[in-house]
Design a protein that fits this description.
The protein is an alpha/beta fold.
């Protein structure tokens, strides 16, 4: 057992966030933690980690547990370079290598000390081999390269964006290899290639993982148990996210059936009592039923799952078949050439996913296509609606209802409120200023504005950002039913997979079209990766290991660390015993006991060193 909550209750200002919660995390477990926006998932994580103290109940943690915690907004702070900040993790390895060099130099200068120095050198060499200290550079480059930092090793950390520093914090945690990784939205700021790399890395991670994520693909790939926080209650389900959805529906239906059966039984008992309590011949049996009612543990009526938002994207009129067409163009941003000699044609009814690494120009391309540039021609009867991932067109000081209703004054207030309510904005939300809304609520407001426009060409830039899982799935269903044309950017692979009929990929300064949807795109990429690699690329690839290899190496390193720690303890005890041997040389019985213990230590050390040699 690594961490445990027992009957924990905690809240703010008298309002409970979680009540009578039980949660355990065991060695090696892979747990997904889900719940709606604002339910309090981060609060539960902070309770587990000891950053908050429960109002009641107990929190248990394994003694000496090493936990790595990635906060949603917890960027890494350092004045070092990217590589230097990661190298700090391996300071002990560098010290061991330096001590070995010193011992080797000392041996060369004082060969008469050969016995002592040779033993020291042998011990250091074994510890270095056990920790794989000479290869820490490869490990750093593997993680940094996989997480998208190749080519920026010398950049100062404090000059990077908040998203990049959060990614660096995750890199550092992966290199530290704690017993438990607690990850709060680790897929934020990651492009698709990096997501795939991270999944592969975490699949073979030896420690336990507790992850909060809105990425369904990621949860299905990584987790084997799902914890849900809903209405202040923690529930555990065996399986990944897809399995959890099935089990949750089954559990709710079973709870409803059990409640209804009990209510039927209660009604029958009460009816019998009402009809027979006053009759002498049946009063005794009626009283026995009264006793049964009093002893009954009455079930609470199951609370139905929160209703997800509902979206509907209709179109006032159909566009012509050719929705958008461009002449060849170049695309630049901040004096950097992103695309060169690109032309594009979009057809009615298609759903295009625009994909590419971060910084390749996806958002810039969307804005260019919607601009009045003479190289872009919109088809006849095309009506566009644009979703900005920053929701920059929402006035922070404007009331939520006015931000929506002001754009569509022909709606009655009742109609406006109804549309906002269907999008998930309740009576309390619509009177708030836009700046007071959470990120998820602002996203729902922007989507409500979008659907009320009734456009036939939707251009969406990261529409799933800030949305919880039920809202993402509701949006996905609505867009799947949309009969117009869709061009969207998203890092949610399940979302892309469900919607895209075609993929536009920005790679290497080019825009490439892939027909057949996301799976066809991935297959094409996979086939391309099988092409013969240059010698330089082949050499680079050698630094990356398969997940099976990483799993074996992680297991070996863990055992090696155990042996190393034990050897250090044995060496410390041996030094103490040798000091005692000199101090009590005249005490025969004491000396006999000390030499016996020293012999036992040497036998254990020999056995451990023999195991070392096999492991290294």
């Amino acid at each position: 057992m690594l961490l445990e909550l027992k009957n924990v209750t905690f809240g703010y200002d008298g309002v409970p966030t979680v009540e009578h919660a039980d949660l355990s995390v065991h060695e090696g477990e892979r747990i997904g933690f889900v719940g709606g926006n604002g339910e309090g998932k981060t609060t539960v994580l902070r309770l587990l980690l000891g950053e908050l103290v429960p109002d009641s109940g107990e929190v248990f943690r394994k003694n000496g547990i090493r936990v790595g915690y990635l906060e949603q907004t917890g960027g890494f702070e350092s004045s070092s370079t990217v590589y230097g900040a990661m190298r700090e993790v391996f300071r002990e390895d560098e010290e061991l290598i330096e001590r070995l060099k010193e011992a080797q130099s000392a041996l060369a200068a004082a060969p008469q000390e050969m016995k002592i120095l040779s033993a020291r050198i042998e011990s250091l060499e074994k510890r270095i081999a056990a920790r794989d200290s000479y290869h820490f550079d490869v490990r750093i480059k593997t993680v940094l390269g996989g997480m998208g930092f190749e080519g920026v090793f010398d950049q100062k950390v404090d000059t990077m964006s908040g998203g990049e520093r959060t990614k660096l914090k995750l890199c550092r945690l992966l290199l530290e290899e704690p017993e438990l990784l607690v990850l709060d939205e680790p897929t934020n700021h990651l492009d698709i290639d990096t997501l795939f790399w991270l999944e592969e890395y975490l699949v073979s991670y030896r420690g336990a993982i507790l992850v909060v994520s809105h990425d369904r693909y990621f949860l299905d790939r990584i987790t084997a148990r799902t914890i849900e926080l809903e209405h202040g209650r923690l529930s555990s389900y065996k399986g990944n996210y897809s399995k959890y959805k099935i089990l949750k529906a089954e559990r709710y239906q079973e709870e409803v059936r059990a409640y209804e059966r009990q209510q039927e039984e209660i009604a029958k008992l009460k009816d019998y009592v009402d009809r027979n309590i006053v009759r002498a011949s049946t009063a005794k049996s009626a009283l026995s039923r009264v006793g049964k009612l009093e002893r009954m543990d009455v079930l609470e009526k199951p609370v139905p799952p929160p209703r997800p938002p509902r979206f509907f994207f209709g179109q006032e009129e159909r566009s012509y078949e050719r929705v958008l067409e461009t002449k060849p163009f170049d695309l630049s941003a901040d004096k950097k050439l992103l695309l060169s000699g690109v032309s594009l044609t979009l057809m009615r009814g298609e759903r295009y996913a625009l994909v590419g690494d971060n910084g390749t120009g996806k958002s810039t391309l969307l804005k260019f296509l919607l601009s009045k540039d003479h190289r872009v021609t919109m088809g006849k009867y095309v009506k566009t609606a644009y979703y900005d991932q920053e929701n920059a067109d929402l006035d922070p000081e404007e009331r939520t209802l006015d931000a929506f209703w002001g754009r569509y004054p022909r709606l009655t207030q009742t109609e406006a409120r109804k549309l906002l309510a269907e999008a998930g904005l309740g009576a309390d939300d619509i009177d708030k200023k836009c700046r007071e809304l959470s990120g998820g609520m602002r996203a729902k407001l922007a989507l409500a504005v979008l659907e009320a426009k009734k456009a036939n060409f939707l251009v969406l830039d990261e529409p799933t950002n800030h949305l919880d899982l039920p809202a993402r799935e509701a949006l996905e269903d609505a867009l799947r039913a949309f009969e117009g044309t869709l061009l969207f950017v998203s890092h949610d692979r399940r979302f892309i997979e469900a919607l895209a009929t075609s993929v536009l990929a920005i790679e290497g300064g080019r825009l490439t079209y892939f027909a057949g949807g996301y799976e066809a795109y991935l297959m094409a990429k996979k086939n391309a990766s099988r092409a013969p690699m240059s010698e330089e690329k082949e050499k680079k690839r050698e630094n990356y290991r398969s997940k099976e290899e990483r799993a074996r190496e992680a297991k070996t390193r863990a055992r090696i660390r155990e042996i190393e720690q034990r050897l250090e303890a044995l060496e410390a005890e041996e030094e103490g015993l040798n000091a005692d041997l000199a101090a009590f040389a005249a005490d025969y019985l004491r000396v006999r006991g000390i030499t016996g213990r020293l012999e036992a230590l040497r036998r254990e050390s020999d056995a451990l060193y023999a195991e070392y040699e096999k492991l290294i």
